[in-house]
Amino acid sequence: MTEVINEPTIFIGEKNEDPGKWYIENEALVNDKLLNKGAVLLRGFKMAGLTDFDKFVGNSISQNAKYLGGATPRKNLTRKVSTSTEFPKEQEISLHNELSYEKQLPEKLIFCCLLPSLTGGQTQLSDVHQVYNLINTEIIDEFKKRNGWKLVRNFGRGFGPTIKNGFGTEDIDLIRRDALERDIEIEIIDDRIVRTTQTVDAVKRHPVSGIPLWVNHIAFWHKSSFEPEQLKLMSDILSADEFPYNTLFGDGTVIPDDYIANIRAAYSEAEFMFDWVKGDILIVDNYRIAHGRKPYTGKRKVLVSMGK
């Protein structure tokens, strides 16, 4: 077994080597690399398809997390495995920590590439401890002073997900119960439209190392993330609090655009990008590492599982 010095740490396996068996034998090593670098890539192991990956996940995730409150479509393939975000291939998926706005984040993400894209389609990663250190300190201080950040989402207005897409049901009683369990404020506009509000700290501490991390969707879901034409269309029809999503300071005040620009620049400066190879397995510490996806051509099939 050869370790290639790279970002993330890469372990090269044999063509017929079972990655699940290797993981069990080397779990302490993998966890050490995850703690110190945030991501581990297994390459060259036996990984023929969904069945192999589902078996690997069974060996490496003890408790699977649900994709609660997810913003983008994906298909569940097994109880543990789904497709990665099914987002238009022409568009980039910005860097983010999965479900950063939820009360409990998935601790670990595992991706598997069954079919790399023809061109593009790289996964970009950013160490959010480094991102934290790159953001202007006055911006971080302002989020602390203003009670973190607030996420406002609208379901059912036609520009974003439907109520069923967002909650998996249209039963208002079930939606209220779900929101209560997840510390979400909910407003029933009518039987077709629901607005949710979540207020979360902008900075989290790593559950093991304790280092400060910029873990949030502040830039990802800020209204400036919309394409200019789409933003103009929505602005002509909707008020700011009716947008499918928007982020504010925790006290409800507007986040200046130059703050968002500084945050995005920090992500970009910390970004590392790699091309997928068929059969690759990428293990990510979801607290430490933000991930995204570059635009691509051709077909691309990447699966994902999340949990702890």
Overall mean confidence score, pLDDT: 91
Taken in chain order, the helices and strands follow as: EEHHEHEEEEEHHEHHEEEEHEHEEEEE
Shape field: globular
CATH architecture of the largest domain: 4-Layer Sandwich
Task: Summarize the biggest pleated sheet.
Answer: 7 strands, mixed
Oligomer: single chain
What would you report as the Rg, rounded to the nearest angstrom? 20 Å
Beta-strand residue fraction: 25-35%
- CATH fold category name of the largest domain: Double-stranded beta-helix
Overall helicity: 25-40%
In the predicted model, the low-confidence regions spanning at least 5 consecutive residues are 1-6
How far is the first residue's CA from the last residue's CA?
26 Å
Beta strands, count: 19
Task: List the topology elements.
Elements: E1 2-4, E2 9-12, H1 19-25, H2 27-37, E3 39-43, H3 50-60, E4 82-83, E5 93-96, E6 108-115, E7 119-120, E8 123-127, H4 128-134, H5 137-145, E9 149-155, H6 163-167, H7 172-181, E10 185-190, E11 193-200, E12 203-205, E13 212-214, H8 228-237, E14 245-249, H9 257-269, E15 271-274, E16 281-285, E17 289-293, E18 296-297, E19 301-307
Parallel strand pairs: 2-3
Antiparallel strand pairs: 1-2, 3-16, 4-19, 5-17, 6-16, 6-19, 7-18, 8-15, 8-17, 9-11, 9-14, 10-11, 12-13
Helix pairs in contact: 1-3, 4-9
